[in-house]
Design goal:
The structure holds two protein chains of two kinds. By secondary structure, chain A is mainly α. Chain A folds into two domains: 179 residues, no CATH class; 113 residues, no CATH class. Helices cover 68% and strands 0% of the residues of chain A. The longest helix of chain A has 28 residues. In chain A, 45% of the residues are buried. The radius of gyration of chain B is 22 Å and the shape is globular. Classes of the chains: A mainly alpha, B alpha+beta.
Chain lengths: 334, 207
């Protein structure tokens, strides 16, 4: 509260009266009240871009099986499936580099995408690089349309948020450069909170509807869906729990999953139950990784939940103002 | 003014996701239980709601917006039912060829392709009712299914070509698509502990 009052008094000097009134009105509501922690923006940018990089690097040894002339599904056939709503590497190649080989276009694409993601991790030209990375990511998943799965769509969402949110304002090369030039401007705290709320509401919607859809399926009521999920042909079978087949454990896990997901919007937003629900959700995703083998998907969902509901509520004592910290870090780098 | 614009944009974005999710939930419910959409008032209302929302979601600007922002993403992972996984077998001169991948992620992504095939084969859009209107709709759906069948055959042919090239095959190759079924909780016991592969489709391709 004190911090908020101080912020407004300082801002009064710079902003017109109407603007301050609007700020005051908005900040009165809990929805827009500042959590006081902007580290989630840094965490979100770095983890999302590093994850996308890791995910892309993980597929590079097999990239020719999925994209290009020697792929399992050749680009022309994929383009029919994508339906022209978004360009694929093939359509981009036809538009701009049609005199070059498709494999060259794929290599060119890989390098561009990796560079964009590295710049995003470092916070160098953050917003333009986020736009480039988001565009290349969409091009990538359109090009491997038949091979795409859940994690790709969540990466699209997260990269879109990297474009929209002020993720480059903290702990980034951009902020170091601006601080050095004396042009560093802290992002508007209410805008930061609004961004956080959008991310939080998005996750609440995602989990609620995921739980609701499970509730619709009768196989989720008797544990059959959990049983079937852990016995899919591609599951790695790291831990075998088949000996528990005649116990009600699968029924409990099934209902546990539905309850955890459907009540996520409620209990994750209550201060006292937040840590419990966060642990439940992290546990759910660790189980998905361990039993179904969707390691990347699980990791990414944990990253999103931690970004939205753990980091913003962490209590960190910062001895210096953020601009001072930026200056110090910059000085160390030099 | 700046805040109002930001809040309105955020509201639109989140509302779009809610509408899209409700639409998908209702359609999944109809599809999963093969519900007659005109059977009672609730179903009729749900169906008319979906008709309106679908019109909005599939407007060209909305489609582009949703695709670029990821707002079109459905959240029904493993729901309402867990789709059976599958396998593709490539037989060349009585020898089974397994597609090789360098990474685990490559294998997971290839299983996505197989899931697409299973989903296409299992979920045919034709419905079994006898009214004249439904018959007409069935004919339309049948045409769509036929086109999809041809398309998936083409994809399968493409996969066959890749396997032929990679394995230096000089003769006919047979592709078999299987659905993997593991005994359910009730059936699982000391005598039934292994899954079975149910053949769904078989095609032969030669150079």
């Amino acid at each position: 509260m004190i911090q908020r009052v101080v912020t407004f008094r300082l801002n009064k000097i710079d902003f017109p009266f109407k603007y301050i009134c609007m700020k005051k009105i908005l900040s009165k509501y809990v929805f827009f009240s500042n959590t006081g922690n902007t580290d989630w923006l840094v965490f979100f940018r770095i983890t999302v871009s590093a994850f996308c990089l890791l995910q892309f690097i993980a597929i590079i040894p097999d990239i020719n099986n999925f994209i290009g002339g020697n792929a399992y599904v050749v680009p022309d056939i994929v383009d029919v499936h994508v339906g022209g709503i978004f360009p694929t590497i093939n359509t981009l190649n036809n538009l701009s580099l049609k005199y070059l080989d498709v494999s060259f276009a794929v290599n060119y694409f890989c390098i561009m995408y990796i560079v964009a993601l590295l710049c995003l991790v470092a916070g160098f030209f953050t917003r333009p690089m986020a736009i480039v990375a988001a565009f290349f990511h969409l091009t990538f998943i359109s090009s491997i349309d038949f091979f795409a799965y859940g994690v790709d769509f969540f990466c699209t969402i997260a990269l879109f948020y990297c474009v929209v949110f002020p993720v480059g304002r903290y702990l980034s090369i951009d902020s170091f450069i601006r601080t050095r030039r004396g042009k560093y401007k802290k992002p508007d705290p209410i805008a930061v909170v609004l961004c956080l709320r959008v991310l939080q509401i998005h996750l609440c919607i995602a989990y609620f509807f995921s739980g609701l859809l499970k509730l619709i399926g009768f196989n989720w009521w008797n544990g059959e869906s959990i049983w079937k999920s852990i016995h899919l042909s591609f599951c790695p079978n790291i831990i075998n729990i088949d000996f528990l087949s005649h116990t009600p454990i699968f029924l409990i896990i099934g209902w546990g999953t539905i309850i955890t997901e459907m009540l996520y919007p409620l209990f994750i937003n209550i201060k006292k139950t937040r840590p419990i629900w966060l642990i439940l959700v992290v546990g759910l995703h660790l189980s998905i990784a361990l039993f179904i083998g969707l390691f990347l998907f699980s990791t990414f969902m944990i990253i999103l939940s931690v970004s939205a509901f753990y980091i913003p509520y962490m209590k960190i004592k910062i001895p210096y103002s953020e601009s001072k910290v930026n200056e110090l870090v910059y000085a160390n780098i030099i | 003014m700046k805040y109002i614009i930001i809040i309105l944009l955020a509201f639109f974005h989140l509302s779009f996701m809610v509408v899209n999710s409700i639409d998908r939930t209702i359609l999944s419910y109809f599809d999963f239980y093969q519900v007659d959409k005109s059977a009672n008032k609730i179903n009729k209302d749900l169906n008319s709601f979906c008709t309106v929302t679908s019109k909005f979601i599939y407007l060209t600007p909305c489609m582009y917006y949703a695709r670029y922002t990821g707002a079109d993403c459905g959240y029904g992972f493993f729901a309402p039912n867990v789709l059976s996984s599958g396998a593709m077998s490539f037989v060349y001169k009585n020898k089974n060829i397994i597609p090789k991948f360098s990474t685990y992620e490559g294998k997971v992504r290839f299983s996505s392709l197989i899931s697409n095939f299973i989903s296409h084969t299992v979920n045919k859009s034709s419905i079994n009712t006898d009214t004249a209107e439904i018959k007409h709709k069935n004919q339309v759906y049948k045409n769509i299914d036929d086109l999809n069948d041809k398309y998936y055959d083409l994809v399968m042919k493409n996969i066959a070509a890749k396997v032929i090239v990679d394995n230096f095959c000089t003769d006919t190759i047979t592709i078999k698509l299987f659905m993997y079924e593991f005994p359910n909780l009730k059936k699982y016991g000391p005598h039934d502990t292994k899954g079975s592969y149910i053949p769904l489709k078989q095609n032969r391709f030669s150079i």
